Amino acid sequence: MSWEIILSAERGSFTDYNGSSVLGYVACMPARLVPRLFMDKFFTPPIKSDENGRALYAPYALRKIEATLVNKGFKEVAVVPPEKLKDVIDEKTKILGLSVHDPLGIDPVSTKLCMIFGGGPSWTALFFEELGDLVYELKKRYNFKVVVGGPAAWELIKERPDWIDVLFIGEAEHSLPEVVENLLNGNQVPKIVYGKDAKLDEIPPIINPARLGEVQITRGCPRGCAFCSITPETFRSIPLEVIKKEVEINLKGGWNRVEFITDDLMLYGSYKLRVNHDALTKLYSEIMKMKVDGIWFPHISASPVKESPKTIKAISEIAHYSFDRADAPVVGLETGSERIFIKYMRAKSFPYEPREWRDVIIDATSIMNDNYIFPCYTMTIGYFDETEEDVEYSIKLVQDIIDHQFIAWIFPLPVIPMATSRISKNPFPNLKRMPKNYWDLLYISWSYNLKITRKLIPTLTGGIKNKIINKLTNLMIDKIFNNIEWIFYQLRETKGLSSLNYSGLNLNNIIGIIKSITWLFKLSFKPL
Q1: I need a surface site. Which of 100, 177, 270, 525 has the fewest CB within 10 A?
Q2: How far apart are CA 313 and CA 53, in angstroms?
Q3: Does this model's pTM top 0.85?
Q4: φ, ψ (nearest 5 deg) of residue 149
Q5: How far apart are the first and last CA of the chain?
């Protein structure tokens, strides 16, 4: 069977990450350092499809586009894994829509990991390049139109491949159907289209299951941080009945877990950034009544946690979070510098003042830890006007977290001037532009990350019944962690220049493997 409209994405996006979205971060590593076999079998395995090539489940964004087009009357729409495109695209195919999440490998995580491990394209970039080669050949044969959108479509504004006919920036529900209609009718469409934000009644529920039980509960963010592409005007809470419909679709598709999609869990049902306790507790209670195995969420902000600890306690109890069932969402720590904070993210501390940011973080971390929510703090470092004094304030804030011995991870990331943000004209970060004491911040953060992870290892490996294997596993992990810490120690001592030592490592060819084994052997005898 074939379709007029096919939706897909590169492998780094079109996967279920073996059931754990955390494994997706491995795709941000330099491709030469992670063997393809590991990517294909463990970190980004392909999603299964039916006899017609359609994905049994798919990334939420593609499911939302599918629902939008079907809701507008486009009947021949199929969501297809990238591995099946060559089997399903034919003369009947008129449009191929692709969603991209990091096509050039320049998002904050990819930029940092590639920078500190000697450069080279990330797996996210390599996957997109491989998909592009396939699409280019298929397009020459069948002459369909290609529309590319998604959260990282901004990366392609200045470096758009020739095989892309339309680059779609922004939300799809309101504007994409018109683009599709024009393309099907042979009408001219601009090379770049900026989609208008959709109203709530324009956002249909998904009609087929999303991977990992993904369900969107909010869209947008009213805080308006300068480094973010989301503008304050875009915030909406999805109605509870729509959320429940999507959970039901996912349950029928075999997903008993629920993964909320949100830029900040605590914004659900909020008005003017104030926590809506009743809306959140009702949301959790209603979803848990549907007999799901658990509810997880990817993002939360520190300020509303401090504002409403009773809400955190309530949702933790409803969802049955515990030490063995803790959630580990991403939380924006950003900076410890009041000057940088006021200039780039002033509303992030609301309802508290920027000068209270340190207390907000410490109090919120304590509240989360008490309720089995272990934050993964991200920091934006390297603004063009950021000084070493600013970074020292960030180091002090991180040290405060460490001194309290919280269960939290801290990731100082280079701030990226996204083309759709208010800092789009800022220079792109590189080794030379980073403040010199960034490497001090990176070292103390990762030393603590490894310490916390070590602390959790007995829990993580507790399922290993054989005592000898359990002991060997823990010894191996301990040795690996020592080596990782030594890498960050060297980055600190050389102000990042030691990253160049890894540029020759390549685990995807025989010579590179031999060199890597030699390097790792030497590394294993390095004292810290």
Answers
A1: 525
A2: 44
A3: yes
A4: -145, -160
A5: 60
- Please tell me whether the peptide bond between 351 and the residue prior to it is cis, using omega within 30 degrees of 0: yes
- pLDDT tens string, the chain, 528 residues long: the values are 779 999 999 999 999 998 888 888 889 999 998 889 889 988 899 999 999 999 999 999 999 999 999 999 999 999 999 999 999 999 999 999 999 999 999 999 999 999 988 899 999 999 999 999 999 999 999 999 999 999 999 999 989 999 999 999 999 999 999 999 999 999 999 999 999 999 999 999 999 999 999 999 999 999 999 999 887 678 999 999 999 999 999 999 999 999 999 999 999 999 989 999 999 999 999 999 999 999 999 999 999 999 999 999 999 999 999 998 999 999 999 999 999 999 999 999 999 999 999 999 999 999 999 999 999 999 999 999 999 999 999 999 999 999 999 999 999 999 999 988 999 999 998 888 899 999 999 999 999 999 998 888 765 555 445 666 566 666 666 666 777 888 899 999 999 999 888 887 787 765 555 554 454 445 444 554
Q: Which residue has the tokens 């970039």?
A: 125
CB 187 within 8 Å of CB 314: no
Q: How would you classify residue 461: left for phi > 0, otherwise alpha for psi between -120 and 50, otherwise beta?
A: alpha
- The residues, any chain, with a CB within 8 Å of residue 318's CB and separated by 6 or more, are 281, 284, 285, 288
Q: Is 410 helix (H, G, I), strand (E, B) or coil?
A: strand
User: Environment class of residue 343 by beta-carbon count within 10 Å: exposed (0-12), middle (13-18) or buried (19+)?
Assistant: middle
Region for 298 from its dihedrals, namely left if φ exceeds 0, alpha if ψ lies in -120 to 50, beta otherwise: alpha
**∠ CA(520), CA(521), CA(526), 5° rounding?**
85
Give the residue ranges of DSSP H helices in 49-158. Answer: 60-71, 85-88, 108-116, 123-142
Q: Could you please report the per-residue DSSP string of 19-77?
A: G-GGGGGGGGSBGGGS-HHHIIIIISPPPPB-TTS-BSSB-HHHHHHHHHHHHTT---E
- Give the number of other Cβ atoms within 10 Å of residue 510's Cβ: 8
Residue 241, amino acid: E
